[in-house]
Amino acid sequence: MTKRTIIVSGLAATYPLGGVAWDYIQYLHGFYKLGHDVYYLEDTGGWAYDPFNVTFVEDLTYHVGYLRDFLEKLEPGLTKRFCVRGPDDRHWGLSREELAAVVAKADVFFNISTTCMLRDEYARIPVKVLIDSDPMYTQSDIPRYQRGEADEKAVKNIDNMRRHDVFFSFGENVGKPGCLVPTGLFDWKPTRQPIVMDAWAGGGRYSREAFTTVLSWQPKEKGPEVEGVRYGGKNMEFEKIMDLPQKTSAVLELALGGGKPPRELLEEKGWKLVDGFAMSQTPWRYRDYIFESMAEFSTAKNAYVASKSGWFSCRSACYLASGRPVVVQDTGFSEFLDVGEGVLAFTDEAGALAGIEAVRRDYDRHEAAATAFARRYFDSDVVLAKLLADALA
Question: b/e per residue, 254-272, with b = 16+ CB within 10 A?
Answer without folding.
Answer: bbbbeeebeeeebeeeebe
